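Practice set, problem 2.
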Amino acid sequence: RIIFMTENFTKVFENLKRQTYRKKINKIWNMIREGKFNELDNKEQKLAMIVMNHPEYQENYENEDLLNGREYISDNEFNPFLHISLHEMAEDQVISEAPLEAALLCEHIEKKGYSRHEGLHVIMTILINMIFASFANNKPFDEQRYKTLLAKCKKVDPSEIQNVIQREFTSN
């Protein structure tokens, strides 16, 4: 029997993915609160560090509506779970040096006196703009453009990076 990907099936699947990720964060958050950080495996500890670096999102880690997969809708806030997920992606890129340009940009930002956290947020900003451009243009993620933009941002002072990103995405 063949199962066809209907719009309803896609929505249910997306909801389950959101729910699974959010419940993972909730589990990690509860372990942190209970002082059981050391009982987490290495991957969970890495995610726990990201969660702990974002105390402003703590109320969301226990919000039952959000944990059940409800879409995050807010007029004035970025989705905290998406933020954590993007943070995790940026951290993975820097640690693995894949792409190398991400690690070099983060290192450049840190050498200029900014925190690693701030460096990761710059990478996240580039990453989210790249993902949005892919969806908006109905094209695959342009890895070469991403690497080029990371390298371009490394050539300027961190205070100018936001302008570089804005020019890149308002001109196209």
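Problem 2, part (b): a different protein.
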Amino acid sequence: MKFVILDRDGVINFDSPDYIRTRDEWRPIPGSIEAIAALSRAGYEIVVATNQSGLGRGLFGLDELEAMHQKLCALVEERGGRIGSIFYCPHLPQDGCTCRKPATGLLDAAEREYDCSLAGSIVIGDSMKDIGLARAKACQPMLVLTGNGVATSAALGAGDADVRVFNDLAAAVVAILNED
């Protein structure tokens, strides 16, 4: 099975410094839903791995988070695709958990769920945390310039030649499918 692991905020949907708190605030970046559906239709298993410290901060509850994820899944399904799983970390950065990216707990859980190794899979994100996660699990990091991606791209150095950079998720998916 081929996997693509996606960050959520700033990659699939618009991000906010005030957190995405409700289903209505959750708005997809143009082209992202169609891109996810195209990957799914091409045989990729889509896994979302997202830090959601707003939950731990009390800015929204589990019902609101699940409503956002139901909206995401429904939009992808309307376009003939499917999201296999969504894993999230509810903890604050200072909590020292093993699931907050760049720690590998979210992908460790995915490996247990799918009974496989994700090594070699593609991880698409907009931050150094996503790149760190990809490297820690021997995955291929891809950076999109949406969300925090422009600032992250500016921070890349000579040691980051393994990071492929794309304008957005739609462009990254075109590259993946063209190489498939």
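Answer key, part (b): Strands lie at 2-6, 44-51, 85-89, 122-125, 140-144, 164-166. The chain is about 40% helix and 15% strand.
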